[in-house]
């Protein structure tokens, strides 16, 4: 069994429990906003990711850092959820748990999740145009665009819609050229 499957098997029950808690409290949209804020904070700080993933750092120290960083910015039940993850030594799985939670909420709301990997930030107009084209391609009414900046793409972008991948990146084109040159 691959490590990704193991991580998924561990993460899904936490995401489901958080979704149930958010539904029971009528805080689905607030929970989504808080988790997106946390995800952005983690994505912007490799040091914070490494700190939380380090098993040698004391749990109390991690709890203090989580409290200081997020106490005034997120709902109490989300903060308590983070502290439970720290206690159970599951905090390194936080990004995966957040992604699973978002998948579950989007599925609950019939929203198509589209991952966009790009070398530069897209403007709001570009994002909206892309979302409209994806709606036409997939016959979906609701599309959620999740954008990730990946400088290794050099230029262009990669779109993932479920299991389908559209690679319009410069790095992808260079890989294809390299493959054809090495094959002959």
TrEMBL record:
Q: Which one Pfam family would you cite for this protein?
A: OSCP
Q: Give the chief site where it resides.
A: membrane
**Where in the cell does this protein reside?**
Membrane
Instruction: Please verify whether the record's keywords include Nucleotidyltransferase.
Output: no
GO molecular-function annotation terms? proton-transporting ATP synthase activity, rotational mechanism
Which parts of the chain span the membrane according to its record? none
Q: Name one GO cellular component term.
A: membrane
Similarity comment text for this entry: Belongs to the ATPase delta chain family.
Q: Which UniProt keywords apply?
A: ATP synthesis, Hydrogen ion transport, Ion transport, Membrane, Plastid, Transport
Organism in which the protein naturally occurs: Delesseria sanguinea
InterPro entries attached to this UniProt entry:
ATP_synth_OSCP/delta_N_sf (IPR026015), ATPase_OSCP/d_CS (IPR020781), ATPase_OSCP/dsu (IPR000711)
- Under what name is this protein listed? ATP synthase CF1 subunit delta
- PANTHER family cross-referenced by the UniProt entry: ATP SYNTHASE DELTA CHAIN
The record's annotation in Gene3D superfamilies points to:
N-terminal domain of the delta subunit of the F1F0-ATP synthase
């Amino acid at each position: 069994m691959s490590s990704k499957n193991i991580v998924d098997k561990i993460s899904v029950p936490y995401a489901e429990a958080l979704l149930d808690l958010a539904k029971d409290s009528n805080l689905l949209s607030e929970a989504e906003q808080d988790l997106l804020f946390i995800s952005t904070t983690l994505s912007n700080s490799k040091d914070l990711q490494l700190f939380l993933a380090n098993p040698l750092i004391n749990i109390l120290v991690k709890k203090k850092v989580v409290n200081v960083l997020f106490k005034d910015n997120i709902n109490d039940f989300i903060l308590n959820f983070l502290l439970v993850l720290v206690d159970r030594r599951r905090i390194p799985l936080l990004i995966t748990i957040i992604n699973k939670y978002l998948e579950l909420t989007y599925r609950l709301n019939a929203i198509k999740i589209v991952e966009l990997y790009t070398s530069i930030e897209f403007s709001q107009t570009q994002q909206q145009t892309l979302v409209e084209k994806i709606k036409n391609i997939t016959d979906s009414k609701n599309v959620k665009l999740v954008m990730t900046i990946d400088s290794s793409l050099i230029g262009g972008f990669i779109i993932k819609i479920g299991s389908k991948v559209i690679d319009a990146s410069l790095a992808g084109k260079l890989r294809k050229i390299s493959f054809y040159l090495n094959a002959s």
